[in-house]
Amino acid sequence: MTLELNILCAIFAPLLGAIGIAVLGQRYANTREVVTLITSVVLVALVWRLLPYVFAGESPSVVMANLLPGLEIEFRVEPVGMLFAALASLLWVVTSIYSFGYMRANNEQHQTRFYVLFAIALSAVTGIAFAANLLTLFIFYEVLTLTTYPLVTHKGDQKAVASGRIYLGILLGTSIALLLPAIIWTYQLTGTLAFTPGGILSGKLTGPAIGFLLALYVFGVGKAALMPVHRWLPAAMVAPTPVSALLHAVAVVKAGVFTIVKVVLYIFGVDFLFVEPSADWLVYAAAFTVLAASVVALRQQNLKRLLAYSTIAQLSYIVMATAIFKPIAEVGAAVHMVSHALGKITLFFAAGSIYTAAKLTEVGQLRGIGRRMPWTMVAFTIGALSMIGMPPTAGFVSKWLILTGAFQPTNYLVIFTILASTLLNAAYFLPIVFAAWFRENDTAVSIDHGEAPRLIVVALTVTSALTLLFFFLNQPVLDLVSQLFGGIYGD
Fold first, then answer.
1. Residue 195: which of 105, 343, 80, 335 has the closest Cα?
2. pTM over cut 0.85
3. Domain span at residue 297?
């Protein structure tokens, strides 16, 4: 198989799987789930087959269509996109296993539609990861929004429909009203939309217009959930837990921050923005979002809403690190995409496990649950420690890199924000962990239950183990990402 064909197969194989899932339907539920799992494994094989070439310094690409001069539907595999695609594809396998246990145990309706849309969403994510230019990325970005909307409204009740309206309104509204004009403006200035190391805007734009264009991009990418365009994320928590776990802890939100990273690196260029005062606002906006979302999380009693506001804060870590415009901080931003994904998907898996086994959704109901669901709460504890940034978890690795990057230009705002948010993370996660393990059972809550179904427990065990392993085995990720930044900043 040629590399060009490999790229196209990675993007469109999930669509073939979606067709197979739709044909089998509820009548052949077992076979439908086998096809789902096979499709996810095939995607991993296709995506990960490209890794050795990227490590070797190659950037395989393929052009699907030429629309206008400088406007192509093109895909190119580069280090950050490779990292995003490899992460999303791997976690789809685990989430598929989790979904089989969750959807059946909770007797969820429309399971075939759920698995079909999940597969299409992963096709869109792969397209975003491998997009070679802004036009290609924008197309798949919108496909991801439209595909995940029915997943958010899966339950079909009034609350789900209302939440879906917020989800679709914010994500489509920001992309059409802000992101699309930014893309058109960029094309008018440069005659191209290609992602180019070092950027394409140097010498094309000056003064406050630089900061304004950057704002159009940052707030136009609503999936990054930078305040005030963040409300869609807590609203989306009405979705089934597998949707919250992969799409809103990994795929959708990571598509947002990934897009911002790509725009900063490949459209503006970090050297260009580092000396431009009108771009300084980004680090302040990100720092505000980190702290404000962490404070809001402190007040949440619903477990999934707490995790949603935690995600908003953690996403802005990535934006804030990117806005430092220093090599090691940029590496930290990319690595935090991985560490946050592993820790947060574990937390969502644990929340879904608790709901499935005990039908509990509120923080105050979790006293003593660690004794009844030890596997689940060990996983939750590991995920929580990773969000705080404590060793030996994945979160420590990326926070350390971001802090190290902040010390290079002595950015006191970033240093203070990370330290303060770490304390806030501890303030809302550690009481849950303590109550689960060391408080007495809540007598108002039924205790006649054990762990969730085996497939759910297997999935959360895998992701919690990966959260720990990443602390010790992160060098390949660092090598992959550093390769890109070495190319931009020099040796």
1. 80
2. yes
3. 280-491
